[in-house]
TrEMBL record:
InterPro entries: Toxin_SymE-like. This is Type I toxin-antitoxin system SymE family toxin. Residues 22-72 form the Toxin SymE-like domain. The lineage of its organism: Bacteria, Pseudomonadati, Pseudomonadota, Gammaproteobacteria, Orbales. GO terms for cellular component: cytoplasm. One of its GO terms (molecular function) is RNA binding. Transmembrane segments: none annotated. GO terms for biological process: RNA metabolic process.
Length: 77
């Protein structure tokens, strides 16, 4: 007989964790030595980039649309 507050334990392995399809970043400024009119910058980093095929040294293309940036690997022919 089961104990009063026992829980069923599954014997199957853990399901792979789903990767989020959105990431949230903040646009900052490039340090410019205190001069006026600093340039905005966006830095994207994390191991998740490797998990989706963006490895260090690979060229990318950034497409600009209305309120949107699309980053793709540059296909080399």
């Amino acid at each position: 007989m089961a104990k009063t507050h026992s829980k069923l334990k599954l014997t199957t392995g853990k399901a792979p964790a789903l990767q989020p399809t959105e990431r949230f970043y903040t646009v900052g400024y490039t340090p410019n030595g205190g001069f006026s009119n600093p340039r905005p910058q966006l830095t994207i980093k994390g191991r998740w980039l490797e998990q989706i095929g963006f490895y260090a040294g690979l060229p990318v293309i950034i497409k600009v649309e209305q309120n949107k940036l699309i980053i793709e690997l540059a296909m080399q022919i």
